[in-house]
Amino acid sequence: MTTPDILFDGPEDAPFTVALAHGAGAPMDSPYMAAFAEGLAGRGYRAARFEFPYMAKRRVGGPKRPPDRAPVLLETWRTVAEALGHQRLIVGGKSMGGRMASMFAADAEVGDAPVRGIVCLGYPFHAPGRPEKPRIDHLKSLRTPALILQGTRDPFGGAAEVATYGLDPAIQVHWLEDGDHGFKPRKASGLTERQNWDEALDVIAAFLGRL
Prior knowledge:
Blueprint: E1 7-9, E2 17-21, H1 31-42, E3 46-50, H2 53-59, H3 70-84, E4 89-94, H4 96-110, E5 117-121, E6 146-151, H5 159-162, E7 171-176, H6 193-209
Parallel strand pairs: 2-3, 2-4, 4-5, 5-6, 6-7
Antiparallel strand pairs: 1-3
């Protein structure tokens, strides 16, 4: 597989490179992805954004396609990780992108080439309205340090149900008050989307500082 185009933010000599994959519906340069890449860069880390094949095809005028199947998504992650180097690499991303990053990281543990950490922005623990079918098998034995940022109103997984999953102790979950799947709170909460994004970025920086 050809290495996808990678968009960098932040210093080349940063202690870690944080590779961020997009979610199912929006590209790597969406306002959300840009905010997190630029926020990490502003905190001294190097962010690397890329697109899965189906999204890259949309960019050049192709039809709107559903996400590639998991084997293609995972192979894309392998290609990106090889290009960036595993030693100082944090993998993660938005929703589907973060889930695939965690699956890639689990595979990398078995292959004796682990990455340094995982950061998931809104993990899709289950499809909305389908909590009886969680997507967590690989998370129960994960050894790579991981951080999941999750809104308390996220329809893909709320605090009460996530507490019952028995996730590996290597996984830290930080809850963003009144946030939806993109961390946006309701106006009545008194919070703003930007505040939740900034809180998430500060928590990520603290997590990376402990690695």
